[in-house]
Structures are given as structure tokens and as C-alpha cells.
Target: GH16 domain-containing protein
Amino acid sequence: MSRTGFTLRLATLATALVVGPATLAPGTAEAPLTSARAGDGPSAAQRYGWRTMQWDFAWEFGESLSDGPYRGANIRGGRWIDQSTGTGRAVKYGGGIEFHSGEVIRNTVTPDFGTTTLTLEGKPARLGRWELRERVRMYNQPQFGDAPGGSPYAFVLELIPADPAAYDCGRHNITIARAPVGGTSVQIGANAGTTRWSKTLTGYRRGATEGRLYAVQVTGRKISWFINGRVVASLGAAAAIPKIPMTVRMRMVGAGAKEMRKSCVLVDWLRNYDLAKGVRHPRAPGLNKGSFGGDC
Model:
């Protein structure tokens, strides 16, 4: 390579480091190969060929909750609104977001109660694909000499109506995942008025540092759920398909004022893809139909 060519390559690299990913990323449209880590396996986006990535929240370059996504074909707008009914909080930490149940220090008896919520504003979509990587950190483990703990929190990932005025006590929510923090089961589901389709999947054990991948694909014909990159269920009920734009809500759910087990839920990234390419209707088992009375 000539000295001139080498100099140009260095200049290009230096420019990339200065302008940052938000400037370079609009052309990024594929599922990154680094999205799978030990314990997860390939992501659903990789396994099923999802394209195009619309946005990616990964919080790796100092972004706050009020900042938009750092890469994707559509990085305009988008911010997270946090709310807590107890001791918990959602904070930017390292390369992700952490839900803290309270003062997350080992062997402490400070209170842990209530529900902590993050809701995405400015990125509504009626159809599409969403995928998230989550990890957990448990405290108050007596086997390590910690103080006794309470009941486990639940981490809940949902699609809800993007317009707060259209929220109807969960009667049209899609539950991408509801999992006890530190547990091995995952519940999925979709609501349509007073009808609910749901299923609880078990056996999802993982090591202390391993992540778990949750995803959902919503087309005009079917909703499909994915765990650790593999489809686990699908629903073709027309009533369950969203009729209005939806958005993402993440929660670490407690039980009112009841003391809970000290915990931390870490979200490494959350991505959205359109339906232009990839497998749109993977075959999978169905869900169980039941009734729903609302969550308000």
C-alpha cells in the first residue's frame, strides 16, 4: 500500500472515532454478529435473517435515557421515560441500562419494594420486530452469608399502545416476556379486550453471567415469540394483531409495598427491525386461550 493510501485509511479511522456511531450508523441495517454471547446463542435477528434494523438502543457511548438510538436506518427521536412506585430506579450504567430494586449492596437490609418502569416514547410502530438482551444479578443470598431476601421480582417486557390516551388497562398489550428474576420460566402472551392468550415456558436455566434474549415479531397475520434466538410460540388470532401503533415498556415488577428480594436487571441492548426480509411466519406451537380482566 502506498503512503498516500495508508494516510487516507488512518484519516478515515480518525474521522469515525470523532464523529461517533450516530453519524456513521444510518447505513447500518444488518443484525450485528456480536449480538450473541455465551449462554444466548445466535439472536433471532441472525437466525431468521431479519432486515432492516430500524434502531438500536445500546447505551455504549455515554447516552442517557433521554437520548435517541445510536444506530439504525431510523435514529430520529426516541427517549425513555422512567417511573418508580417504590425504592427502585432505572439508571444508565456501563454499556446498558440497569433496573435497581433499591440500594444494591450485598448483605444490606435496606428496603426493596414497588415497581420500576421504563417506557419508550417517540418510536411507535404497529408491526415489526423487537429484540432485547437481558441479564440479572441477585443479592441477599444466604448461602453467601447475605441477609435473608424476600419474594422475587418479575422482569416484564411488553408492547403497549404508544398513545397513553389509548392505554386500556393492558387489554391490548403483547407480553414479550414475563420472567421471575433469577427464575427459569418465561411467560408470553397477548390480550384482546377480555380475551387473553398465554403460555408459560420452563427450563431456561443460565449461569450467573449469562444473558437471555427475548424477541417478538408482529405481522399483519401473526405474532411470534422468540427466546434465545429460537421461535417458541405463535398466534394467528386476528383480534390480537395491533390495530394502533405500539411501543416498548420494560418493568421490574414488585408486589405493592411488600418487601422483595434485592435484585438488579441489566438490559444490554434493545433493537427494532422492519419486516422487509427474513422469515415472516416461522412454525411454532400455539398459546392457551383464556380471559383477561385488566391490570388497572
The longest helix spans residues 3-19. The two ends are 67 Å apart (CA to CA). Residues 89 and 263 are 11 Å apart (CA to CA). Confidence is low (pLDDT under 50) at residues 1-39.
